[in-house]
C-alpha cells in the first residue's frame, strides 16, 4: 500500500467531492467561489466554445430542500431577463444527483472592491443601476432578500449585475400570471419550507429589522429597500462630499418602520437620479440657503458667466471714469 | 498475499454494505462478532499503533505488544459492545479505551505476551514503522488530532486499495490507472487529460468520463467503508463531514 501524504489526502478529499460533469457539455476549469449551499466554478462550454460560470450544489447527498432551493434560484434568475441580472444559460442535474445551473461569466469586481477606487458620482451611478435591476425583479414579484455589496458585480465594461438569488422570495401574485404560475406551482413546497416563520435569512448588516426578527410574512419589497439603503450607506461611508440630501436618502431607505421607507426601488432610484442631477430629493426638505447653494452648484457655468460680466462692467465703469 | 491487508479478510472482500460493524460487534453470534471485529481491527490497528508509538512514546516492540494486546482484550472482553453513540464518536471511544488500556498496562508494569488471539492476523508493523521513520509526526498536533489524522490517512489508504481491487474485479483496470495517474500523481506537475489520453490511447472525452466514474466509485467506497465503522446515521454524517469535509444524507 502506498503512503498518502497530507497533500495527497487533501487532493483525494477534494476529488471525491468534485461534481461529475462527464455527462454535460461543460468542463470545469477552476473553482471561483464557495458558499454554504453551492460552489461556483469557471467552466468551458465545449459546444459553444465559451467560458461560463457554473453553480453546483456542494455535495450530492444533500436533502431535497437544498436541491429545490437551487433549482428555484435558477428558475427565478432565468425568468428575470434584465441587463442588471446575470442571465442563466442552462440548468440540470448531474449524474451524482447535484443540481447545477450555468450562467454568464461576469468578469469584473464586486461592488465593495469597485467602490474603493471610484468617485462618489460613479458609486451613485452604479447604485442607481442596482436599484433599477431590483425594481425590475420587484415588478415581477421577486424580492432578493440578500442584497449586499458582495452580491453585486461591476463588469469590465461598467455593467452592473445583481447576483445570488438563492434566498429570493416570490411575493406578488398579480404582476405576471404566467411567471408566477410557472415558478410558484412548481416550488410551493420548497418555498414553504424555506420561509418558515422565525427563520432568519440574509446578511446581518444589510438585513431589515423585520428580516432580522425572522418575520418572514412581513417581508416585502421594502425589505429589499432597507438593504439597498444599507448598500448606499456603505457607498457613502468614506465620502466627505456626500451631502445632507444623500444621507437623507439613505436614512429614508433604512427607516426602521417599513412604512417610512421608499415604497419602491424605482422611487429610490429616482431620488438617486435627482442627487446626480443636483435636483431636490423627495427624502429631504431644503432651506432657502441650501436651495440657493444647490442652484449655484448646478448652474456654476451660468453663475461664473454672470460674475465675469459684472466684473467686466465694474472694470469698465472704473476705467472709463473721467 | 499482501500481509498488510491480510487481516481477517474484511478488506480483501471489501463489503459494499450498509451494515455497521459497530452494531454487529454487540452480536451474541460469535461468527458475526468476529467478522465485525475484523472490520474494526482493519480500520484502526495502524492509527492505534502509531498513536501508541508517538503519543505514549512506546518503543517499537512495546507498541506492537500493546496494539496486539489491546485488540485481543477488546475482542475477548467485548469492549466495543459497550459503545454508546449518544456519548461520543466510535473513534473517540476507541481512543479512550486504548488510553485506558495502555495506562493500565504501564501501571501494572506488565510485559504483554505478543500475539495471543491475534496471532493469525499479520499486521504489517514493519510498514507502519517505516512510515513513522520516513514521515515525522507534526509535534504541534494534540494526541486527539494526531490519532484522527492518522485514522483519516488510513481510511483513504484502505479505500484506495479497495478501489484498486474493485476495478480489477470489474475489469476496469484502466479506470484505476487513470485515477492513479491523475489523482494520486506523485509528481508536483499535474498531468493533463490530453496527455493521459495520448498515454493511454484514448479520446480526452473518454478520459474525462472514466475519471468521473472512477471518482464516483471511489467516493462510494469511502462512504461505505465509513458506514461500516459508524453506529448511527448521525455519527456517519459527523464522521463523513470530518473525513470529506461535506454534509451527506
How many E strands of chain A? 10
CATH architecture of the largest domain in chain A: Orthogonal Bundle
Name the CATH homologous superfamily of the largest domain in chain A: Transferase(Phosphotransferase) domain 1
* Proportion of beta-strand residues of chain B: under 5%
The tally of beta strands of chain B, per DSSP, is 0
Number of helices of chain B: 10
- Quickly count the helices of chain A: 11
Helix content of chain B: 55-70%
Rg of chain B (CA only): 19 Å
Secondary-structure-derived class of chain A = alpha+beta
Biggest pleated sheet of chain B: none
CATH classification, class level of the largest domain in chain A: Mainly Alpha
Rg of chain A to the nearest angstrom? 25 Å
Low-confidence stretches of chain A: 183-198
SSE class of chain B: mainly alpha
Distance between the termini of chain A: 113 Å
Any idea what the shape of chain A is?
A: elongated
Largest interface: A-B, 25 and 32 residues
Helix and strand run of chain A: HEEEHEEEHHEEEEHHHHHHH
In short, what is this structure?
The complex is a heterodimer of chains A (322) and B (249). By secondary structure, chain A is of the alpha+beta class. Chain A is 44% helix and 16% strand.
Q: What does the model show?
A:
The complex is a heterodimer of chains A (322) and B (249). Chain A is an alpha+beta fold and 322 residues long. Chain A contains eleven helices and ten strands. Chain A has three domains: 9-105, Phosphorylase Kinase, domain 1; 107-285, Transferase(Phosphotransferase), domain 1 (Orthogonal Bundle); 289-319. Chain A has helices spanning 6-15, 64-79, 111-115, 120-139, 177-194, 209-212, 221-236, 244-253, 265-276, 288-298, 300-319, and strands at residues 26-34, 38-45, 50-57, 88-93, 99-104, 108-110, 142-143, 152-155, 160-162, 169-170. In chain A, strands 1-2-3-5-4 form a five-stranded antiparallel sheet, covered by helices on one side. In chain A, strands 6-8-9 form a three-stranded antiparallel sheet. A two-stranded antiparallel ribbon of chain A has the order 7-10. By secondary structure, chain B is mainly alpha-helical. Chain B is built from ten helices and no strands. The longest helix of chain B is centred in the middle third of the chain and has 27 residues, at 143-169. The relative contact order of chain B is 0.13. The chains are: A alpha+beta (322), B mainly alpha (249). Chains A and B meet through helix 1 of A and helix 5, helix 6 and helix 9 of B.
Amino acid at each position: 500500500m502506498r503512503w498518502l501524504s497530507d497533500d495527497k489526502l487533501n487532493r483525494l478529499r477534494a476529488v471525491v467531492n468534485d461534481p461529475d460533469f462527464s455527462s454535460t457539455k461543460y468542463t470545469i476549469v477552476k473553482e471561483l467561489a464557495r458558499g454554504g449551499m453551492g460552489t461556483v466554478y469557471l467552466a468551458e462550454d465545449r459546444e459553444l466554445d465559451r467560458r461560463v460560470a457554473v453553480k453546483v450544489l456542494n455535495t450530492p447527498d444533500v436533502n431535497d430542500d437544498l436541491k429545490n432551493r437551487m433549482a428555484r434560484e435558477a428558475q427565478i434568475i432565468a425568468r428575470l431577463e434584465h441587463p442588471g441580472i446575470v442571465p442563466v444559460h442552462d440548468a440540470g442535474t448531474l449524474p451524482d444527483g447535484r443540481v447545477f445551473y450555468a450562467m454568464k461569466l461576469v468578469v469584473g469586481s464586486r461592488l465593495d472592491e469597485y467602490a474603493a477606487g471610484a468617485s462618489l458620482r460613479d458609486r451613485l451611478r452604479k447604485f442607481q443601476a442596482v436599484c433599477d435591476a431590483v425594481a425590475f425583479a420587484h415588478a415581477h414579484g421577486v424580492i432578493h432578500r440578500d442584497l449586499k455589496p458582495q452580491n453585486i458585480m461591476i463588469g469590465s465594461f461598467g455593467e452592473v449585475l445583481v447576483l445570488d438569488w438563492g434566498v429570493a422570495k416570490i411575493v406578488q401574485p398579480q404582476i405576471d400570471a404566467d411567471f408566477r404560475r410557472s415558478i410558484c406551482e412548481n416550488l410551493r413546497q420548497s418555498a414553504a419550507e424555506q420561509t418558515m416563520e422565525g427563520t432568519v435569512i440574509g446578511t446581518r448588516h444589510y438585513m431589515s429589522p423585520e428580516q432580522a426578527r425572522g418575520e418572514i410574512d412581513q417581508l416585502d419589497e421594502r425589505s429589499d429597500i432597507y438593504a439597498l439603503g444599507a448598500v448606499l450607506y456603505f457607498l457613502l461611508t468614506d465620502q466627505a462630499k456626500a451631502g445632507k440630501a444623500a444621507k437623507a436618502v439613505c436614512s429614508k431607505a433604512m427607516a426602521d418602520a417599513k412604512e417610512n421607507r421608499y415604497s419602491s426601488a424605482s422611487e429610490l432610484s429616482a431620488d438617486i437620479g435627482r442627487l446626480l442631477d443636483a435636483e431636490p430629493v423627495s427624502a429631504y426638505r431644503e432651506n432657502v440657503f441650501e436651495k440657493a447653494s444647490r442652484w449655484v452648484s448646478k448652474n456654476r457655468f451660468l453663475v461664473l458667466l454672470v460674475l465675469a460680466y459684472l466684473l467686466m462692467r465694474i472694470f469698465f465703469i472704473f476705467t472709463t471714469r473721467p | 498475499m499482501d500481509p498488510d491487508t491480510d487481516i481477517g479478510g474484511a478488506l480483501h472482500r471489501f463489503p459494499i454494505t450498509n451494515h455497521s460493524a459497530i452494531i454487529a460487534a454487540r452480536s451474541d453470534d460469535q461468527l458475526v462478532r468476529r467478522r465485525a471485529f475484523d472490520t474494526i481491527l482493519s480500520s484502526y490497528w495502524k492509527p492505534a499503533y502509531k498513536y501508541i508509538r508517538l503519543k505514549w512514546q512506546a518503543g517499537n516492540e512495546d507498541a506492537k505488544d500493546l496494539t496486539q494486546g489491546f485488540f485481543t482484550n477488546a475482542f475477548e472482553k467485548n469492549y466495543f459492545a459497550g459503545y454508546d453513540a449518544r456519548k461520543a464518536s466510535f473513534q473517540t471511544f476507541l481512543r479512550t479505551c486504548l488510553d485506558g488500556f495502555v495506562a493500565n498496562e504501564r501501571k501494572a508494569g506488565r510485559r504483554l505476551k505478543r500475539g495471543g488471539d491475534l496471532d493469525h492476523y499479520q499486521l504489517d508493523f514493519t510498514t507502519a514503522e517505516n512510515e513513522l521513520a520516513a514521515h515525522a509526526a507534526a509535534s504541534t498536533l494534540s494526541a486527539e488530532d494526531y490519532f484522527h489524522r492518522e485514522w483519516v490517512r488510513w481510511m483513504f489508504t484502505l479505500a484506495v486499495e479497495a478501489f484498486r481491487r474493485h476495478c480489477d474485479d470489474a475489469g476496469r483496470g484502466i479506470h484505476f490507472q487513470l485515477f492513479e495517474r491523475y489523482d494520486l500523481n506523485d509528481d508536483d506537475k499535474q498531468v493533463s487529460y490530453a496527455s493521459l489520453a495520448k498515454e493511454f490511447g484514448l479520446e480526452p472525452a473518454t478520459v474525462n468520463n472514466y475519471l468521473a466514474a472512477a471518482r464516483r466509485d471511489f467516493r462510494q467506497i469511502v462512504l461505505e467503508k465509513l458506514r461500516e465503522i459508524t453506529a448511527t446515521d448521525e455519527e456517519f454524517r459527523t464522521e463523513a463531514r470530518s473525513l470529506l469535509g461535506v454534509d451527506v444524507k
